[in-house]
Structure formats: structure tokens, C-alpha cells
Amino acid sequence: MIGEKIKNLRLKQGYSMTRLAEEAHISKSYLCHLEKGLNSNPSLKMLDKIASSLHTTIDFLIEPELNRNTSSLETPLTKEWLQLIEQAIQDGMTKEDFIEFQCYLKFRKKN
Fold first, then answer.
1. Rounded distance, CA 94 to CA 83, Å?
2. What is the pLDDT of residues 10-61, one digit of tens each?
3. Which end of the chain, C or N, has fewer beta carbons within 10 A?
4. Distance CA 67, CA 40 (A)
5. Is 34 in contact with 42 (CB distance < 8 Å)?
């Protein structure tokens, strides 16, 4: 699961395995083992390096995917949500800002 997310994010961002390994300061073979599921229990330190290089969070990498067929768990993307998102972008919010804000909200809910 973690390996699939890493691979999908890597490909989405146009990174080769070599480039991600170099940016995360990990070995290419270690990254390959993660992506293939041969290592399914990486350390938090390694996940932090990978998450930072992919501009995401450790939480995103380790959270299980929700079943997309379960519509009761999904919040519809309404016109109001789209307007809020558009306004945030106009105000200068980046994807990284949004991800950081999500992490903050999760932290606040846990504490």
C-alpha cells in the first residue's frame, strides 16, 4: 500500500526512481523494494525523507485509501467548495500550504 502510493506520486510528479532516491537521500534499491512491496514497514525517518521529496506528508503515505465506491463517506464537491478553493488560490494558497493546513487540522483533532 505505501509502496503503491509512493510510486503513484513519483510518477505523477514526473520523477524517475533515481531522481527521487537522490532527492530523498536514500538508495535506489531501498526505494525499489518499497515500491514493489518487498519492504512494507519503512522507518518514519525514511518516510519523512520520501514524503518531503514528494511534497506530501507521512500521514498521506500511511493512511489507508477509502473505498471510492462508498458514497456515504464522500463529501460532494459543491459550488460552495469550488468557490472556497478558487478564493484560496487567488489569495496565494499553494498545494503545500493546503497539505500543511490539513496536517495541522489532523493534529488539532487528535489533541
1. 16
2. 999 999 999 999 999 999 999 999 999 898 888 999 999 999 999 999 888 8
3. C
4. 21
5. yes
Q: Is it the case that residue 101 has pLDDT exceeding 50?
A: yes
Q: How confident is the model at residue 102 (pLDDT cuts 50, 70, 90)?
A: confident
CATH number at residue 27: 1.10.260.40
How many structural domains compose the chain? Answer: 2
Q: How many CB atoms lie within 10 A of CB 49?
A: 18
- Domain membership of residue 7 (yes or no) is yes
* Helix extents (H) in the chain: 2-12, 17-24, 28-36, 44-53, 58-62, 79-90, 95-110
Q: Hey, what's the cell of 14?
A: 514526473
